[in-house]
Amino acid sequence: MTQLVYLVPLFPLIGFLLNGLFWKSMPKKLAGIIGSTAILASFAVSLGIFFEVKNGAAAGQGIVHLFDFITVGNFKIPFAFMVDQLSAMFLLIITGIGFLIHLYSTSYMHDDEGFTKYFAYLNLFVFFMLLLVLGANYVVMFIGWEGVGLASYLLIGFWYKNKEYTNASKKAFVMNRIGDLGFLIGMMLTVYHFGTLSYNDFFAQLQGGIGAQTQNGYMIGSGMTNAIAICFFIGAMGKSAQIPLYTWLPDAMAGPTPVSALIHAATMVTAGIYMIARSNALFNLAPMAQNMIAIIGLATVLLAASIALKQNDIKKVLAYSTVSQLGYMFLALGVGAYVGSLFHVMTHAFFKALLFLGSGSVIHAMSGEQDMRKMGGLGKYMPITKFTFLIGCLAISGFPFFSGFFSKDEILAAAYAKNPMFYYLGLLGAMMTTFYMFRAYFYTFTGNFRGTEEQKHHVHESPATMTIPLIILAILSLVGGLVGLPEVFSHHHLLNEYLSPVVQNFDIHHLDHTMELTLMGIASAIVLIMMYVARVITRKEQFGEAKGLAKVLENKWYVDEIYDFLIVRPLAWKARILNNIVEQKGIDGGVNGLGQLVQWGSTRLKNLQSGQVGSYLFAMVIGIIIIFAIGIFGLLYM
Which residues pair with 78 in a beta bridge? Predict the structure, then answer.
């Protein structure tokens, strides 16, 4: 099956071409079938590849060479795929969750006039994400990296007639380019020092450790490894929305809700996590970069979670939740717990896709309403959505024995082993997570209905094509954590054993069972307490104007306004100066002035060609006189 890996990205590409080329004439039903079937076919091939890799039967050491891509002297970059434990895991997540989102979209987007085009974009997004995780070198990864940036731009601004939505898509595109520049510089440094961008060649040279010599003759030093690692991390900051490049992600809610689920749960935002985990051999030799990743990840956890506490748009709550959960993944990467980070990537894909699709079900029932203050009591009308959304809330909160409990516990335990302060701050983030998620749940599904009578009349459970993905994701959110049971429960951490050939998990000084159980007990108690607090506060909270800290949180710590004041406005001011003075008066003025000078001269010269014979005779006589005068003047002074 590994030799057929090219089919995995090929099927979505074919779906994109069919729906993209014939979007005007393609029947909606057929477009949905083509788009969904393409991803389902990729999932089927991915499943076969996964089991082949798991059983150790992958051919050619996991490298599938498709064709020679770039050749400059001895420097070669093939277009090749790497099929190993890490890429096989991500293939299942991308295609599996992706198919459920496509299936869900067939109902959610049914009445949209751009239905066929939407599925074309969705297939294109999945195609580039698959390229990103399959690439056997950083160049192929970067093609996918840039491709998902393009596809996300198209999907976030899908409803392009709304200027606010198009601004959100441009913001996502620009902020990602900032991170991408860091990634590019990191790639250049890698080529300069190591002479390769191939994973196998690069990591083989890193195995020598600090002090070893690269094939380009440079000695591997901590300065070199930290510089490359930090540049790579800057790229990851953009894609995976870490401070300071996180503000595009909440604005990405402008796209249709299934797009939010795809971007936030299983694909684009995990690209930075994948890139760092893939490059773990580099980051293990870059302790300064690892500390930076852990600190920025932890800061992102707290900042985003605090903002989510006072958001009233149900999708904005989930958006800032995503930013916060990504912070946990980076915290794990920073302390060297790569498996823990990837474990949370997987469980987060389950419960966050569930929560976004659940919110989409609510928005669909509420005729597009997203403000939780205008909802309430929807549980009686939407029992399946309510029950599955509750499972998602329990999973993301780390309720005992749900998937998020195991993955988040592994991250917090690793953080405690590395630095207890990391653990306590991470626990604070977990407290806020439980509160804002159950605040959203109670506001939406319990109490009295606060919407209009017309909305109340139309509230209904979503169709099967929307509820079936919710049920499947709820089951995964419930049992997904069983692949990573801690040692206190089982001696076999299945995910760690599976990823061990690829990911060199850093030694985090294993905790004894008593301490591990204590940490679990503290986290579980906090979840229960914060669920109760959320219930009490939602019953009493008045929907008046926010004041003090509540207003600051509601306005997202004014980070967007600060960026606007410090960056956007000065750039706009400079742009106006360059446009009005340099370009219009300088460049355009100079060009136009030269043209006006030529025009002025030509109007004077044209008078010499008046067509009057007398004028010509007069000019000829004057000319002859001048010639004679010059001649006589010359003879006198010879």
Answer: 68
